[in-house]
Specification:
The complex is a heterodimer of chains A (about 325) and B (about 260). Chain A is an all-alpha fold. Chain A contains 19 helices and two strands. Chain A has three domains: about 140 residues, no CATH class; about 110 residues, no CATH class; about 80 residues, no CATH class. Chain A has a two-stranded antiparallel sheet with strand order 1-2. Classes of the chains: A mainly alpha (about 325), B alpha+beta (about 260). The interface between A and B is large, with 38 and 34 residues.
Chain lengths: ~325, ~260
């Protein structure tokens, strides 16, 4: 005997049509039994989603558990059935603590279900909403690897990824980008193509051969490791621009070797008067010199903090001279 | 300040070529009053930009009146006589129809269409191009239109998908109201793409034709619980590459004249 609920067994073994017919029959003749099955704690979200028309037809909402009504409220909003969404919203307690577990249930049990065309869009929209709510509101980063895989899976199937990718980036965790970067190592050119789009990298002209991906991955990793404490999210997404760049490198923070918050770019510790003086000098340098100075500063800070203190206290032209000489040696 | 062929432009003469309350005069006055120097290779190049900006605004006004509904990509709809709705919710031009007919249909039968704000912007750009370029040239240039926000834009228009810094904001620019604290359940409210119609008025599909505060209010009403950051208008702009389009325009116009001759 498997661990599936009765209705999930029906769906998986006999298909959606049989499930719908049997459930409608039960709801008409043995309403309490139908309710017991739909409220089963092992029920999976895809089964609930398929049965939404029958649940509406037999108006089971008042006797359904909160989990089901919360999930259906999201689905109703996504399919623009605002009357149903409003009705369910009024039935649910405000700010219910159960919501997180419901979104997690929707995601965990719906992650691998591939609905048929016609049903797929509304279902995917509900999954995207659950993901965004989990990540943005409940700060659940444990789902990021699975969400990343889902983004790539959908892209390979030429399905919509924009809202899902947006939800993924709502974690404001730069490390999450390394999950995307791993797809640069894929044998599938479509994976490399999407990884490049999401990370704002130029797609290799060779169409993403294995070696190319490896090189890109190593370059990205090196860049990321050098700059991670100085990266912040830009809020750029596919709705706004054709080439969103998720991260911005803060050269001023890198120059001061001062870590910033990835969400808003604010320094994690207050800027001291001495640092403000350094920044005033730094801002007068040309953009090329600023890049050189910030890069050299971060390297020197990692290598020898005493030397770094001495260097950053010197005049800007001396700083540039030292940086140019030493960076050329490195090169 | 405006320079044409490296010489300061005769603004009074230039203004006199346009109607007293025309949007072209508004644009010329912004360019002329700017501390930045706007250099144009020729008078015709500037005239072309003014014409295209005017048509972008006209197309935005026409789309506003078209009764096209607001839909997310999951629910988008189109007239299947002209377009194929793809699984990701975009609209691909049918291979057996003329691009110009398909674009016109959006504006004539808007009620058959539903999409979100970025795709609406692309519809506006294509309509503006159709008004500026000869129809045959338009149909040659845009044989593979795919309407889906800033994804897969035809090369001639690719720059409209990018946002860049600008010295001045001009009527006909694309702008973006961003909503950083959007309710995650409704990411379609994460921002609103708009066309600057001039005189502080913007058009954004789904919200309408209003001054900036109306867009900010509409977005703010769709924020998450406990939100503390208001929506705001970004400084950056999206613009077509007017230089490249002008060269194309000169090329197709010359070809058309030689064909007539």
């Amino acid at each position: 005997m498997n661990n599936l609920s009765y209705l999930d067994n029906l769906r998986l073994n006999q298909g959606a049509d049989r499930l719908k017919n049997e459930f409608a029959d039960l709801a008409a003749k043995r309403r309490a039994v139908a309710l017991r099955h739909i409220n089963n704690d092992k029920l999976q979200f895809p089964t609930l989603y398929i049965l939404m028309p029958e649940i509406t037809a037999f108006d089971l909402y008042d006797q359904m558990i909160q989990r089901n009504n919360i999930a259906i409220r999201i689905c109703a909003n996504k399919s623009r059935d605002f009357a149903l969404a409003f009705r369910l919203e009024r039935m649910l307690p405000r700010g219910s603590e159960n919501n997180r577990s419901v979104y997690k249930w929707m995601f965990d049990t719906g992650l691998y279900w591939e609905a048929e065309p016609g049903m797929r869009e509304g279902f995917d929209a509900a999954i995207d909403a659950a993901v965004a709510l989990l990540i943005a509101v409940h700060k659940d980063t444990s789902i990021l690897p699975a969400v990343c895989d889902l983004v790539f899976r959908r892209y390979r199937s030429e399905l919509l990824i924009h809202d899902l990718a947006w939800g993924f980036f709502q974690s404001y965790d730069p490390v999450s980008l390394l999950l995307i970067a791993k797809y640069l190592l894929s044998d599938d050119a479509k994976n490399i193509e999407l990884a490049c789009r999401l990370l704002h990298l130029t797609m290799p002209e060779t169409g993403g051969s294995a070696n190319c991906g490896q090189r890109l991955y190593e370059q990205y990793l090196a860049w990321f490791n050098e700059n991670n404490p100085y990266l912040c999210f830009t809020e750029e997404h596919f709705q706004q621009t054709s080439e969103p760049n998720p991260l911005r490198l803060d050269h001023e923070a890198k120059y001061l070797a001062k870590h910033i918050a990835p969400k808003d770019g604010q320094p994690l510790e207050p800027v001291t008067p001495d640092e403000t003086t350094c920044l005033i000098r730094f801002r007068k340098a040309s953009p090329q010199d600023q890049e050189l100075l910030s890069s050299y500063s971060a390297k020197l800070h990692r290598r020898n903090k005493g030397l770094w203190q001495e260097w950053i206290g010197s005049g800007i032209s001396d700083q540039v001279e030292t940086a140019m000489a030493e960076m050329q040696e490195v090169l | 300040m405006i320079k044409i062929a490296n010489k300061p432009a005769d603004i009074a003469e230039f203004l006199s070529e346009y109607p007293e309350y025309g949007i072209e005069r508004v644009i010329i006055n912004i360019l002329d009053g700017s501390p930045h120097t706007y250099s144009y290779a020729s008078k015709e190049r500037l005239q072309f930009e003014l014409k295209l900006r005017r048509e972008i605004i006209n197309a935005a006004e026409a789309l506003f009146r078209s009764h096209m509904s607001f839909m997310t990509f999951f629910n988008s709809k189109c007239n299947t006589d002209y377009w194929i709705r793809t699984p990701e919710g975009g609209f691909a031009l049918r291979p057996d129809v003329k691009p110009s007919d398909a674009i016109r249909d959006i504006f004539n039968n808007g009620y058959k269409y539903g999409t979100e704000c970025a795709t609406a912007m692309m519809m506006i750009y294509y309509k503006a191009m159709l008004e500026v370029f000869p129809e045959e040239a338009f149909n040659q240039m845009f044989r593979n239109i795919y309407l889906m926000n800033w994804h897969m834009i035809e090369p001639e228009l690719r720059e409209v998908g990018l946002m860049q810094g600008a010295y001045d904001h001009l009527p006909g620019d694309r702008r973006y109201f961003i909503n950083p604290d959007v309710n995650p359940e409704t990411p379609e409210w994460q921002g609103e793409n708009v066309i600057d119609l001039g005189n502080g008025v913007y058009y954004g599909h789904g919200i309408g034709r209003y001054l900036a505060p109306a867009f900010i209010n509409a977005l703010n009403q769709n924020r998450r619980a406990g939100a503390d950051e208001s929506a705001y208008l970004l400084d950056s702009v999206g613009r077509p590459n007017f230089d490249r389009l002008f060269k194309l325009y000169q090329k197709v116009s010359t070809t058309a004249i030689s064909l007539i001759a």
